[in-house]
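Note to self: keep these together.
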Amino acid sequence: MNSSPMPRPADLDVVRDSYDRVADNYVDMVRTTGIGDIRAHPWLRAAMDVFADAVGGLGPVLDVGCGPGTITAYLAERGLDVSGVDLSPRMIEHARRLHPECAFSVGSATELELAEASFGGLLGWWSLFNLPRDVLPRVLASFAGALMPEGQLIIATHVGDGDVARTEAYGGVPVSWTTYQWQPDRLAELVERAGLRPTAELRLPAEGQVGPTVVLVAQRDN
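Structure:
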């Protein structure tokens, strides 16, 4: 892995505070509407099931940007040795309350100390789109180094060309963050440059209030 310091996003603290503010509303929306719960979305659930089958038995799995732990718990139910980490302390409070059987910690994707070849699987599931365009490649490189041979990374994110400044989210709660959208081909290129081989891609059209989506899976070969 690259040993030089990871750049710290200038808005990291503001983004953390924003997710702390929306956490309660988000958890309620997961419960009442199924947002963020792959069990309510067959194609997303299928992609996650294939990922779980591929990394099962390889080694620990880390859900980076786990929010209230919905996906972490889903993978634990499938028998994976999985834990979650999230930037927002309030999200982690909810995760620990809702899923006490799983381990959760507070941390940023830019500040994780991931040992070389220590994980069978990593997730960036709707959790990397706030990373600035000059920061995401470095985070992907750290993920690539942390995966064991044959280990896999799964990413889900927003498709588009522009950067969207958000001022409210999840029921009108005031926030301050930027959603960095990516075209699937460009995202796959970044993943390859990080040292991983893309193995699958799922593109989904806009649905309701959620815009176009891409799910990308990639593997470390050596």
